[in-house]
Amino acid sequence: MIKFTIITLFREAIEPYLKTSMMWKAVEKGLAEFDFVNLRDFGLGPHKSVDDAPYGGGDGMLLRCEPVFAAIESVKASDPDAKVILPTPVGEIWNQEMAREFASGEFEKICCRERSGALAQVSLPPSNFSNSSGNCHYIILCPHYEGYDERILSIVDYKISLGKYVLTGGELPALIIIDSVVRLIPGVLGGEQSAEIESFSDGDNLEYPQYTRPEEFRGMKVPEVLLSGNHGEIAKWREEHSGTV
Ligand code: ADE
């Protein structure tokens, strides 16, 4: 069982997806659990403010430390082993291998690479943090402003980037991380083809082209070999036509 606690100001942007299709099936099977924490609940002052202007000047507002630490600590109070993920364009680039490691709870602590010189890089030997019941708990912090106070990194275990582009907030990255991890939990894909032999799962292999009925559509024919019933030839064809990244 893997639990994700999502700390966000925009739960409504995330929740519908998690209540759909495979993600929800994983919940119903007891293999995944999703929980939300409203960062606003930990905001400061009468306006429950969570951000402020940067010291030294500059455009935009930064997430403040106090609400973020309080929100994370409120989750860790009941599960001190929970690991904190921060989606950020300057994190480690997310890939299938990382998704597999997160799904199994076995990975290296890829952590807090130095960005401003304010914090030292932390790198620990491989660890397995799933607790004795085999459960893993990830807290995903979704920033939604121009950035965050650098000291927030001291409470973060993984900085993860979805790619070299800038999104408005951490909600879309959170969904992508969750989806790609949850579908790899054994049992989530049910009787369907296992995630292990699907696209990407053995490294950089992409899926081979696939076809279903009809045999011919608007002049486009299904390759003859796939209709032949010759499993050896089909396997060879698929191997030859697998894409790579
Ligand atoms: N937040 C904003 N842009 C992002 C990106 N590319 N990856 C992860 N988190 C982000």
Structure description:
The protein is an alpha/beta fold. The protein folds into 2 domains: 2-182, Alpha/beta knot (3-Layer(aba) Sandwich), CATH 3.40.1280; 205-244, Trp Operon Repressor, Chain A (Orthogonal Bundle), CATH 1.10.1270.20. Helix content is 26%, strand content 24%. The chain is built from 7 helices and 12 strands. It has helices at 11-18, 21-28, 65-76, 96-104, 171-182, 224-227, 231-240; strands spanning 2-8, 32-38, 51-52, 62-63, 83-93, 106-111, 122-128, 136-141, 147-148, 158-161, 216-217, 220-221. The strands form 4 sheets. It has a 5-stranded parallel β-sheet with strand order 2-1-8-5-10, with helices on both faces. Strands 3-4-9 form a 3-stranded mixed β-sheet. Strands 6-7 form a two-stranded antiparallel sheet. A hairpin with a 2-residue loop joins strand 11 (216-217) and strand 12 (220-221). The two termini are 31 Å apart. The relative contact order is 0.17. Mean pLDDT is 88; it is low at 109-118 and 120-125. The structure holds adenine (ADE).
